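Extended Data, panel c. Modelled sequence:
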Amino acid sequence: MERKRFHSGASKFLYDRYIIGDPRREEEYEEEVVNAEIARKIYQLRTKAGLTQQDLAKRVGTSKFAICRLEDADYEGHTLSMLRRIAGALGKRVEIRLLPAKRLRTA
């Protein structure tokens, strides 16, 4: 089983109490974690490059609003195409890894 990293005992308590053991909630939690990681990574790369949201938007060919949405942890519309455009604008590339599932799911 994969070990989860929590920022506090409270978040671990809440995960253990309300999420673990419920496959639907576990899946929703994992999706939210991925969305937050993508948003955080875009923000970190943009700020490390010294760019404003407007600057990155110009490089990518989109609006500042779109960049703002992409940096929002609650946003669920990340596309591979947009991630590639952002990566290219920041001199990076997108790498995708497929990792073993925690458990096998039957269809």
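The CA atoms of residues 57 and 63 lie 5 Å apart. This feature is highlighted in the accompanying rendering.
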